[in-house]
Amino acid sequence: MNDRSKTSSDQMLAEAKVDSARNELMPVMGGRRDTLSLLKVVLVGILISLTLKIFAFILFDRANEALPIVDSFFPAFFRSQAVARVAYLLACSGCLLAIFVTQKKHLVCATLLLVVNLAILTIHQSAFNDVTFMCCSWAALWCVWVATRLNEPFESLFPRAVWLSHVILSLIFLGGAVGKVTHGYWSGQVLFDIYFEQRDFWFYNLFRASLSPEQLREAATWHSRMVIISEFVCSFLWLMPAKIASSVAVVVLCGIALTNNFLLFSVVTCLIGLAIVGLHQPKSSEQERRAFSD
Amino acid sequence: MNRGWDFLIQCFGQRDLLGLAVFALSVIVAVAAISILFSQAMKEAALKRFHLASDTYPQWAVHQAVPAMYNFENRIKFSNVIDKSGNYDSDEESYISAAVNHFPARFITFGDQRHVFTKGRAGMFEMESVFGDTALISRWEITRDQPNQLTVNRVHQRFEHRDRGTYGKGQHNLERRGRDE
Question: Topology of domain A32-152, per CATH?
Answer without folding.
Answer: Butyryl-CoA Dehydrogenase, subunit A; domain 3 (1.20.140)
